[in-house]
Amino acid sequence: MGLTLAEKILSMRMGKKVRAGDVVISPVDYAAAQDGTGPLTIRVMEEQLGVKSVFEPGRVIFFLDHAAPAPRKELANDHKFIKQFGKEVGCIVSREGEGIIHQRLVEDFVSPGDIIVGADSHTCTSGALAAFATGMGSTDIAVAMAYGKTWFRVPETIRIEASGELPFGVFPKDLMLYIIGKLTAEGATYKALEFQGETIRNLTQESRFTLSNMAVEAGAKVGLIESDDATRRYLKEMGREGKYKEIKADEGASYESIMYIDSEDLVPSLAAPHFVDNYRTIDQLEGLKVDQVFIGTCTNGRFEDLLVAATILKGKKVDPNVKFIVGPASRKVLEKAVKESLIDISIKAGAVIIPPGCGPCAGVHAGVPSDGEVVVSTQNRNFRGRMGNPNSEIYLASPATAAATAIKGEIADPREFLPEDFKVKIVS
Amino acid sequence: MKIKGRAWKFGDGVSTDDIAPGRYFYLRSQPKELAKHAFEDLRPDFAKNAKPGDIVVGGRNFGQGSSREHAPLIIKLNGVGAIIAKSVARIFFRNAINLGLPMIIVDTDRINDCDEIEIDLKEGIVEDLTKKFKLEAKPLPEAMLKILRDGGLVPHVKKHGSFTL
Ligand code: SF4
Known about the structure:
The complex is a heterodimer.
Chain A: H1 5-14, E1 23-27, E2 30-34, H2 38-49, E3 60-63, H3 73-89, E4 92-94, H4 101-108, E5 115-119, E6 132-135, H5 138-147, E7 149-153, E8 157-163, H6 172-183, E9 192-196, H7 198-201, H8 205-213, E10 222-225, H9 229-237, E11 257-262, E12 269-271, E13 279-281, H10 282-285, E14 292-296, H11 297-300, H12 303-313, E15 323-327, H13 331-339, H14 342-349, E16 352-353, E17 374-377, E18 393-396, H15 399-408
Parallel strand pairs in A: 2-3, 2-5, 3-4, 5-6, 8-9, 8-11, 9-10, 14-15, 14-17, 15-16, 17-18
Antiparallel strand pairs in A: 1-7, 12-13
Chain B: E1 2-9, H1 16-19, H2 31-35, H3 46-49, E2 55-57, H4 70-77, E3 82-85, H5 90-98, E4 103-105, E5 116-120, E6 125-128, E7 133-136, H6 142-149, H7 153-160
Parallel strand pairs in B: 1-2, 2-3, 3-4
Antiparallel strand pairs in B: 1-5, 5-6, 6-7
């Protein structure tokens, strides 16, 4: 019997065949943490495990992204603490303004077949590079950083089989919100999601990250996508073509279930407050007044996302009542967006450009909504209080829907704003 | 081992933002201070009134959301002896067990707020002493049971020199 993608990657890395249900003690290729989870990770290593070194300094990375540059002295001190530890053990510290952990990981570190663990739930983003990547807490990551190992139960897999092309104005974010709505927020708990089918094969590597990123919103451990030419081109652009490996699931692999989606039926979609599986189609929410729009995050803060937004924003002004915030996911994204004039277009439309990083996504800084405000964001979660104020309401949407909404000042259908012949066609 | 205390009943889908709100991110290096804000938006009285041995009772998908270990940590710092829920999010589950905080899966529908609850960890029995009924918990996966028995992940790897699962 064949292997699912999850079984395949783990088997390759373990050097023996493993199956869903097996418990494995696996080597890790990268262990990562961010500025919110990092200090505790370091304290667990130093104070509880009593270690003063990491398993391999080039494979242990801390990212200063959630609250960087620091908005308060306590957070500035946390950053300093992480940098100091980095100096002592020689590991990598990705500093303020370099970008979000998951974006940085796929840009500069992760290759197909790798095992990645990170003290951040969206570590599953790297699954789009056919890497077994999952989020854990600080203690698990402390042990992984110290010993270079972790334990997994090999997950059963739910296969998402998406056929057809995404229609005009519909993006991977819409597809993923639909999937989560169907699966529910706990429908894939402890499981792997494997995204397959013509729709996925036709997506650029950048847009695949949006799918894997949100796997955890259905409870999944990993969200995996096979590597192919799009993956190779992406790695090449990132200067790591030599790391490309083709990894596919076997024919006849055994899936716990298969969810069939006809992508042609999809429409622009949102998740309504306060749960990610609170799925809505655009017609159910069109016209709702909005106070803030945020385009960015590890879900939708990549170059392609800013390009789609800029296509809509070009030559327009956002509604004067809307706070409009744009946050590139990394310095690399920002550089490219500057070069291609996307930032210029966004600024002229009325955007506040914030430094590469998480921005207001985790509720720490750079755009905390006020009481009663309605926010449309391209992030991945809309839990009560997520953006720092429990008395605000967050709707999740694609960058296209977000940009259209910013212009109208109310939830708007991006199909009204996109040029008729618009299609995401970008190499990589 | 038995744990006995008052039930703090919560609904379905309690997120890590409900447990450890992101707006207190700056207190993450001061867990005792952060613990004063546990469940603040759902139960403002929780941190003030929780007593050692009390039991947090959740519904479905308890602890969904972020990987912040501060969520189970500040529940533990408030003296809570165990969490019981109908189902639990994956990362939260691992985190609680890693901290040596028992996380028990059982149908919590019939338990009300303030009920007196006793948990027999060894037998996997949850008893509602107020309403006088017993529930049988879903057994923990073997690997997690081993970690929990050792008192958490750090004691586990220290005891065995690595994972022994
Ligand atoms: S952008 Fe948001 S979801 Fe992504 S890592 Fe940052 S805080 Fe987490």
